[in-house]
Amino acid sequence: MAARTDSVARYICRKAAWDITNLQLQKMLYLAQMFHMGRNNGERLMDAKFEAWDYGPVEPNVYHKVKVFGDGNIRDVFTEARRFEQDDPRRELLDDVCGKFLGYSAGDLVDITHWEKGHRDDR
To answer: Which among 3, 33, 5, 29 is positioned nearest to 16, based on CA atoms?
Structure first.
């Protein structure tokens, strides 16, 4: 069963010690979803519904929940989020994604997750 998106968002924010912006969180959520799907035959990590926005994929519900922080760091507004149990295998994936990407700037994460309309790699 897919996790709640707010639970994944809170987990990522906690791993970042709340030193994360809305833009960074959006990209981290997307990367976590894609890594999970890639490793689990397309099974979704969370119940997120990403949309294509100007700076890449965005989960609108999370965006609207944290937009009050502007481009500053997010604070814990995920009051209804559930914690992952210690033995939940999704923690390992989230820890892996966080370990790989939390050090990246928002701009770098946008570059990793965003293709402009009409972009095609012919290599």
So the answer is: 29
Output 37-45 pairs: Cβ under 8 A, ≥24 positions apart: 39/93, 43/2, 44/2, 45/2, 45/3, 45/8, 45/90, 45/93
What DSSP character marks residue 110? H
Q: Which two tokens stand for residue 18?
A: 């709340």
The string of pLDDT tens digits covering residues 84-121 is 999 999 999 999 999 999 999 999 999 998 765 544 44
Angle at 107 between CA 105 and CA 109, to 5 degrees: 70
Return the closest-CA partner of residue 78 out of 20, 122, 120.
20
b/e per residue 26-51 (b: at least 16 CB within 10 A): bbbbbbbbebbeeeeeeeebbebebe
- Nearest-5° Cα angle at 48, 106 to 100: 40
DSSP H stretches of helix in 1-123: 5-15, 22-39, 60-66, 89-101, 106-113
For the chain, the domains span 5-113
